[in-house]
Write a structure and sequence with these properties.
The protein is mainly alpha-helical. Helix content is 59%, strand content 11%. It has a three-stranded antiparallel beta sheet with strand order 1-3-2. β2 and β3 form a beta hairpin. It is elongated.
């Protein structure tokens, strides 16, 4: 198992044990897991993002900490949070992570998630110039999510 997987699994365990909110100290966690503190940062920025259903806050200084919160939103609020988080551009990897989180959280059913990803796929956007695909994908995903709110 890679160290980033170990860090992510440990943080997930903390979240599960603490009811969805965990506070860690980066240096202490790095020492405990036998990795460098930057590895903790990498895991937090790549696996604990708002698109994946997490809020990460940090406080620097001697008593500093990192607080990770698993977002508990209603279905409609989660959809609106995702729509607002998309912005003007959406790459395919971020779209996949976002939709997978919504399927895992049962905000979207599997079939609906598959349809959203198919509509914004590279294959579906093949006729769109590469420099515009992420912009078009963002518009498609946002509009499809808006249609699922009801």
């Amino acid at each position: 198992m890679r160290i980033s997987d170990s860090v992510a699994n440990y943080i997930m365990e903390l979240l599960n044990q603490a009811g969805g909110i965990a506070e860690i100290q980066r240096n202490e966690l790095a020492g405990f897991l036998g990795c460098v503190p930057s590895q903790i940062n990498y895991v937090l920025t790549s696996r604990f993002t708002p698109e994946q259903g997490y809020l990460v806050e940090s406080r620097r200084g001697g008593g500093g900490y990192i607080r990770i919160t698993r977002l508990q939103l209603s279905r409609v609020d989660m959809i609106m949070h995702m729509i607002n988080g998309v912005g003007e551009s959406l790459d395919s990897a971020t779209a996949r992570a976002m939709v997978q989180n919504m399927v895992d959280s049962q905000v979207l059913d599997r079939r609906c998630g598959e349809l959203i990803l198919a509509a914004g796929s590279e294959k579906a956007l093949a006729a769109v110039p590469k420099e515009l695909r992420d912009t078009v994908r963002a518009m498609i995903v946002k509009n499809m999510l808006l249609a699922t709110r009801t």
